[in-house]
């Protein structure tokens, strides 16, 4: 015998009483079978009960799609009990993805025009929940009529439905403009709150509505002043704050109306000062109103004194015990630091104290704001605080802190010595977390400060002797010892304590770096090159250096092996040229990484280290470039001229290194993308020896206030062309014009077909994920003809 169908209450009890998931599924399957059978039989009396049980099953996560048509039948019924369950089922089971939702449009239209308030309320709730754009267009006139109904119950629901319609179909704004002005005179709390929300939506989506409602700014100001002084009603007060929800909504609307409009801003200035000074901050409701007041002050054309008051409110928020309020204050101050820098600077000690927060999100925000507060007048004090934080900060913040300190020091360094000391401290404390360009920047800085060569080499030697685990520090120290090892041995630096170092100690330290398991291949390359350069700086015998070099001739690392073979060849066959090849690096100015990338790709030579000078016209520097003892870090990317037959030319033939021809005629650069300070430029090179090959260097720059992270650039070309993407120089573009990302595209176009390029960019900016796909059709003709 088939078990009878359960009532809703009995079904709930039986499901809750199931001890296992299998028992629960068994109960639900049996009851769903009864429900299906009842729907097939077409029982009109108990249909709403069966649908109510099905809705409960749906809320538990089980399929209930077979009840969609039953919802339509119940909505079309004349009984209120049927309509109530039918509209509830429509809100739960139907959405825009199902065509069945369009079938209830006529039923909703009939119910809205019946005049029965409970039925009208059900229809309006359903429309505001799942109404599609087509339904909103069809039913907008009926909703407009209900906005002026005498019943507050219906008007309140009609206003909320109008908000949903505006969000779905912004072009319906003109339909709801006239009733809104009338509804602002209402005393009913729900209607007034809904009206403010509706006007806000209209102003955000329609410029015409924004212009229209700027006329009612005095009325909104009067409503808010009444709320602040006398209150709306005691039943809507929270913790002594009069109707904070209505105050917040009015402040948001005033912010939109006063933005970029001088007259409206002037009208609300006095009121905002009154709200900011009279609101109680002992409760969270008052803090919410104050925060909205601050946002409004900062968005409109407010007076200077009012903006200082807003910043001071945020400063008081930083002293609040609630972490959420402190986080909101830090985020808001970070937005204001550019426009109101001096006002935010007054709260610098409090911001610095927030660096010690145990909450990771708070300390990260405090770090970002502290870095933004650094300027030329406080750089020394701020760097001390940030360096102290770097020593104890969590590992996930160390990279951001180190990068921020290096950027700030580069921008505001008072002296070169202070700049060098700051970078050395960062490398010593968090060397493994610094950006890839830190080594190149420091070597260039030291190379350009001739008066600090002795000081720098001694500081680096001492740091290297204490710790060889920080790879960037070891690389800079090895480079500096190789360049200025003679100054290290002289011991005549007056700026630090005298240090007696002999040649054997220096060589032993570099050998220790070479033999350490912690040393990266690039670090070993720096150490080997430093040993080679010391062979011309030291006065003693070079046999020890020659032995070390010969050992690495059989190294498993190809780059290091090639370098050792070249150095050994210098010792054995070209010893008379060794002093000229290994002379000190010339002083150069660095224009940017783009020309550096082009030079490295056009040479296509083996590269190892990360800091080097630009090519010059002297024979020794040409040989240095051919041997590629150190990578270039200069923007002067001209190719060296072909060498005449000479011992240097014999060395080139012996080592089989490439020698590039003179550069071709330049192809103009092209800007292909710009959004919120992120810019993408293309530069082009066509090697003369292979005209079918086009080298495109992608350069991504960032002039905004937020770092661009996880940057990925992908490209596609027509099938008749061949594309090869080289690895980018990084995946982070620092804010405020930091070091850009470069990437090389190699395109082979043997048929000289018109070039089209499709690019896809993905990155994170201001804590949002961005993806852009676009096609570049305006590439220069010289790039493919």
TrEMBL record:
It is found in: Cytoplasmic vesicle membrane; Endomembrane system; Golgi apparatus. GO terms for cellular component: AP-1 adaptor complex. Residues 588-603 have a biased composition (Basic and acidic residues). Residues 665-780 form the GAE domain. This is AP-1 complex subunit gamma. PROSITE patterns: GAE. The keyword GTP-binding does not apply. GO terms for biological process: intracellular protein transport; vesicle-mediated transport. Residues 588-617 are annotated as: Disordered. Keywords: Cytoplasmic vesicle, Golgi apparatus, Membrane, Protein transport, Transport. Belongs to the adaptor complexes large subunit family. InterPro entries: Adaptor_Complx_Large_Subunit, AP1_complex_gsu, ARM-like, ARM-type_fold, Clathrin/coatomer_adapt-like_N, Clathrin_a/b/g-adaptin_app_Ig, Clathrin_app_Ig-like_sf, GAE_dom. It is a peripheral membrane protein. The lineage of its organism: Eukaryota, Metazoa, Chordata, Craniata, Vertebrata. The keyword Nucleus does not apply. Pfam families: Adaptin_N (PF01602), Alpha_adaptinC2 (PF02883). Its main location: membrane. The gene is AP1G2.
């Amino acid at each position: 015998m088939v078990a009878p169908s359960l009532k809703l209450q009995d079904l709930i009890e039986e499901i809750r009483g199931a001890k296992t998931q299998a028992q629960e599924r068994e109960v639900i399957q049996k009851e769903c079978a009864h429900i299906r059978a009842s729907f097939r039989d077409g029982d009109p009396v108990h249909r709403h009960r069966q649908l109510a049980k099905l809705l409960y099953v749906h809320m538990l996560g089980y399929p209930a799609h077979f009840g969609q048509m039953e919802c339509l039948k119940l909505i079309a019924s004349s009984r209120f009990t049927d309509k109530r369950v039918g509209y509830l089922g429509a809100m739960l089971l139907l959405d825009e993805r199902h065509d069945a939702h369009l079938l209830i449009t006529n039923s909703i239209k009939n119910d809205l025009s019946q005049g029965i308030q409970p039925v009208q309320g059900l229809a309006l709730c359903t429309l505001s929940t799942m109404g599609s754009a087509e339904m909103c267009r069809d039913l907008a006139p009926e909703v407009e009529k209900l906005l002026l109904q005498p019943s507050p119950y219906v008007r309140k629901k009609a206003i909320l439905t109008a908000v949903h319609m505006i969000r779905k179909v912004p072009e319906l704004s003109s339909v709801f403009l006239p009733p809104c002005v009338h509804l602002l005179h209402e005393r009913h709390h729900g209607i007034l709150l809904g009206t403010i929300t509706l006007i806000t939506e209209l102003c955000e989506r329609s410029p015409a509505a924004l212009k229209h409602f700027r006329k009612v700014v005095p009325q909104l100001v009067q409503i808010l002043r009444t709320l602040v002084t006398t209150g709306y009603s005691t039943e809507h007060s929270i913790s002594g704050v009069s109707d904070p929800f209505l105050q917040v909504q009015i402040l948001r609307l005033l912010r939109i109306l006063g933005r970029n409009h001088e007259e409206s801003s002037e009208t609300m200035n006095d009121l905002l000062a009154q709200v900011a000074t009279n609101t109680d901050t002992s409760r969270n409701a008052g803090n919410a109103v104050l925060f909205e007041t601050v946002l409004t002050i900062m968005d409109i054309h407010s007076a200077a004194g009012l903006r200082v008051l807003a910043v001071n409110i945020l400063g008081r928020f930083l002293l609040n015990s609630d972490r959420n309020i402190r986080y909101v204050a830090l985020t808001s101050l970070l937005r204001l630091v550019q426009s109101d820098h001096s006002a935010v600077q007054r709260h610098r000690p409090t911001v610095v104290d927030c660096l010690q927060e145990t909450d990771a999100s708070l300390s990260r925000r405090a770090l970002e704001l502290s870095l933004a507060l650094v300027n030329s007048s406080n750089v020394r004090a701020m760097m001390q605080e940030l360096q102290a934080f770097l020593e104890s900060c969590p590992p996930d913040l160390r990279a951001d802190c180190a990068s921020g300190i290096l950027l700030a020091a580069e921008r505001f360094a008072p002296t070169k010595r202070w700049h060098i000391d700051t970078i050395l401290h960062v490398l010593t404390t968090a060397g493994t977390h610094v950006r890839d360009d830190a080594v190149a920047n420091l070597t260039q800085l030291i190379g350009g400060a001739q008066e600090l060569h002795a000081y720098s080499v001694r500081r680096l030697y001492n740091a290297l002797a204490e710790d060889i685990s920080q790879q960037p520090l070891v690389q800079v120290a090895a480079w500096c010892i190789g360049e200025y090892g003679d100054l290290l041995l002289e011991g005549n630096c007056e700026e630090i304590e005298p240090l007696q170092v002999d040649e054997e100690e220096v060589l032993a330290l570099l050998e220790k770096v070479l033999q350490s398991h912690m040393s990266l291949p690039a670090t070993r390359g720096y150490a080997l090159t430093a040993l080679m350069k010391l062979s011309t700086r030291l006065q003693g015998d070079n046999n020890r250096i020659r032995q070390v070099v010969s050992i690495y001739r059989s190294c498993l690392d190809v780059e290091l092996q090639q370098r050792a073979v070249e150095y050994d060849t210098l010792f054995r066959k070209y010893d008379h040229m060794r002093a000229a090849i290994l002379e000190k690096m010339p002083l150069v100015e660095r224009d940017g990484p783009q020309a550096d990338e082009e030079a490295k790709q056009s040479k296509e030579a083996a590269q190892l280290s990360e800091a080097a000078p630009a090519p010059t016209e002297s024979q020794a520097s040409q040989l240095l470039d051919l041997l590629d003892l150190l990578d270039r870090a200069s923007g002067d990317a001209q190719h060296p001229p072909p060498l005449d037959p000479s011992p240097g030319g014999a060395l080139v033939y012996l080592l089989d290194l490439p020698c590039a021809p003179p550069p071709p005629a330049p192809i103009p650069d092209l800007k292909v993308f710009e959004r919120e300070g992120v810019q993408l430029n293309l530069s082009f090179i066509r090697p003369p020896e292979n005209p079918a090959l086009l080298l495109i260097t992608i350069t991504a720059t960032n002039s905004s206030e937020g770092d661009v992270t996880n940057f990925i650039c992908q490209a596609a070309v027509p099938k008749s062309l061949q594309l090869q993407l080289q690895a980018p120089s990084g995946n982070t573009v620092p804010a405020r014009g930091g070091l850009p990302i470069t990437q090389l595209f190699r395109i082979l176009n043997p048929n000289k077909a018109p070039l089209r390029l499709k690019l896809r960019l993905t990155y994170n900016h201001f804590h949002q994920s961005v993806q852009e796909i676009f096609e570049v059709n305006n590439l220069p003709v010289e790039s493919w003809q």
